[in-house]
């Protein structure tokens, strides 16, 4: 029987080890995808550290997958064919029977499946996924460009298109890293007057290159006051994993403005009820997006020339690539390649 390679972790916080496994056949409703590229996401830390319930070892993480359908299981819809280019993101399938699923809100499925948590992920040459996790990759995107859009891309794209902001509105993007550099590109393409908020002036030039109309150095004064000096933000997309930095922009919102939190920090936000009640402001979290949302994100990206800034590393170099992601030195998404 043929084999494929995986990068697995044997114990919590253990090193990556390359192992060979027998190639399995996909079961009913599933397909086997030949992985061409897989992004490394900071959320992988939660699985590798066993910080979330249900993590079992040995563990193969990876939920920013791009590849080709290699084999189709029984009962898969005839619309999927072998050889198709597909992506699989954070949304790795849903149960179809919980209340959110019955209401059509699959991304908040109570039994949501995530590659690398619910089943083996994409740090591998092959992966088996349920058919509802598949998103078609448009011709305009390479595998390495498509992979990060399955989590990072869809998260910021979806949060902006579902916000209350409309073309011409002032929209802030807090943080200019793995999520923020994509958020800026989407915000500009959606017609928002886009302002980047980041620490120091070092990223001002990059913000301008990405199309931002304004840049606020959060260390030079109050970012909320700076936002209000620009007229106030209809929405701020908080991509920085810092509750302190996120809290500092709340008063920069317009009345009924919204703060959209996608940067994960375990500490509490510093906000008083009066900051929200009197001006009618809203703070909300935003999960990733379904496979259709991923497909929409990739289509929009191809149409408007939006691409993630990536560094590629072969599967054998996964350990160094993972550490580069953890250090914050990556610019801005690390992507594993399997060829």
Helices, strands, pairings?
Elements: E1 3-9, E2 16-22, E3 30-40, H1 44-48, E4 65-72, E5 85-88, H2 99-102, E6 126-130, E7 135-136, H3 143-146, H4 152-161, E8 170-174, H5 180-189, E9 193-198, H6 204-209, E10 214-217, H7 223-229, E11 233-238, H8 243-247, E12 253-261, H9 273-277, E13 282-285, H10 291-304, E14 310-314, H11 318-327, E15 333-337
Parallel strand pairs: 8-9, 8-11, 9-10, 11-12, 12-13, 14-15
Antiparallel strand pairs: 1-2, 3-4, 3-6, 3-15, 4-5, 5-7
Helix pairs in contact: 4-5, 4-10
Largest sheet data: 7 strands, mixed
Number of helices: 11
Oligomer: single chain
Question: How do the helices and strands follow one another from N- to C-terminus?
Answer: EEEHEEHEEHHEHEHEHEHEHEHEHE
The amount of beta strand, in percent, is 25-35%
Helix content: 10-25%
Sequence stretches where pLDDT stays below 50 over 5 or more residues: none
User: Class by helix and strand content?
Assistant: alpha/beta
Backbone CA Rg: 20 Å
Task: Give the strand tally.
Answer: 15
Task: Give the mean pLDDT.
Answer: 97
Coarse shape: globular
Amino-to-carboxy terminus distance:
20 Å
